[in-house]
Design brief:
This protein has one domain. With 118 residues, the protein is mainly alpha-helical. It has 4 helices and 2 strands; from the N terminus they run ββαααα. The protein has a two-stranded antiparallel sheet with strand order 1-2. A hairpin with a 5-residue loop joins β1 and β2. 59% of the residues lie in helices and 8% in strands.
Length: 118
């Protein structure tokens, strides 16, 4: 797999920048991890405590990678920064794990309950 992106820089001609796209090796490993998490979630379908534990673990992993490994690997020059930003733009944006809003959670709960049960 070619790990270079060619960028036209005007009068300077073309230059190669490092690509940050997922190589097939990590993509295959991520597919395996994703399938493991999906299978685990399906095993606990209907068990909100277990599923909440799974979501918490995913969030912990996300924060840990972002705060340590990812931040330590951020580019230290303009060319690599441009390549990273370009990859973020092309590959689908910044990763984010949204939390369910308490209001939405309660609205769902109230919709399921018959009026006057409390």
């Amino acid at each position: 797999m070619d790990n270079k992106n060619v960028v036209n820089s005007g009068d300077q001609g073309e230059r190669s920048l490092p690509a940050f796209s997922q190589p097939s090796e990590i993509s295959e490993k991520l597919d395996t991890v994703e399938e493991t998490f999906r299978t685990l979630a399906q095993q606990y379908e209907g068990d909100p405590i277990a599923l909440l534990a799974l979501l918490r673990r995913l969030e912990t992993i996300h924060v840990n990678i972002r705060e340590t490994l990812f931040q330590d690997s951020l580019p230290n020059n303009r060319q690599r920064l441009y390549a990273l930003l370009r990859d973020i733009e092309v590959q689908g944006g910044w990763p984010h794990i949204p939390r369910m809003k308490l209001q939405r959670f309660l609205a769902r709960f109230w919709d399921d309950e018959a009026p006057g049960q409390f």
